[in-house]
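W.,

You were right to be curious about this one. When I first looked at the sequence I had no strong expectations either way, so I just let the prediction run and decided to look at it fresh. Below is the sequence, 95 residues in total, followed by the output.
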Amino acid sequence: MVPAYNAHFSQVFKSFHFQKPNFVIFMEHENPANCDVFVVVNHEFKGFGTIDTSLIRNSRLEDIVEMVKPMDSNPDVVKIIKDYLYKSKENIKYF
């Protein structure tokens, strides 16, 4: 019973992980000087926000995390991000 449960738990846990642990997805904003960002750190969604586009290229992940609104991860957010990563390889910065 326990090994079967552990195998099931391991499979469920993997479904919440992303292929790469640390990245930022950035999307166009109505103001071209800004972009909307989704931040993932250690395979976990950390938050969402709008930041200055020029900051994406030269910022460390820690700096970007501080610029976004912290949010709790949940299965819906994970699914949205995974769907985006599956459909598009653009506008993603990996750390």
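Here's what jumped out at me. The helical segments are 2-15, 54-58, 61-67, 75-87. And, maybe more interesting for your project: Strands lie at 23-28, 34-41, 44-52, 69-70, 92-94.

Coffee later to discuss?

I.
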